[in-house]
Design goal:
alpha/beta; Glutaredoxin; 4 helices; about 180 residues; globular; two-stranded antiparallel ribbon; 5-stranded mixed beta sheet; 9 strands
Amino acid sequence: MLMPRQKTPDLSVPLVDGGTFDLSAETAERGTVVCFYRGLHCPICATYLTEFEKLVGDFAERGIASVAISSDGAERAAGMKEKIGAERLRFGYDLPLAKAREWGLYISTSRGTTSIGIEEPALFAEPGLFLINPDQTLYYMSVQTMPFVRPHFRELLAAVDFAIEKNYPARGEYEGAV
C-alpha cells in the first residue's frame, strides 16, 4: 500500500508526443499531478481529462507538472489526446498492469463495446489521481474502483493553494498500532 510521505514506485512510460515520462526525472518545483485514466473507451475519462487540460497552466503556475497515463497503446492514447483537444497535457501510454497494481490501481476486465462504440481492452486500470512531491514521495492520492465520482481538479488546485500557504504536510502517514 502506498503511504503518504514515502517514496512512490518508479514510473516511466512513453509519451504520445515523443520522449518518455519518467517520474524520477521530473523537475517541477512542487511536484507532479499524475492522473491514471481508464483509456480511450471511457467517455467519463474524456470529460475528466478535458477539465484537466484546461487547468494544466494553473498547476504549472503553482510549480506542478501534469501528466495523464493509461494502459492503452500509442494509437489509442493519441486518440484520447486528439479527442479532448489537448495541447498542454502530456499523455503517457503502455502502462504495464503490474505497475498499475504497484500504484494501488484496480484492474477491470472488458465488458465489450462501450456506450460510445469503442471496445474495452481485455484488462485495464481503473482511475487514480496522485500528487507526487519533487522527491517522489506521495502527497495525495485517490483511487477508484469505478469510472464514477472522481476528485475535481479545481478542488485539488484549491487544496494545493491551501497546502502552499499553510505549509500543510501530507496526511495519513501513521503506520503504528491502532
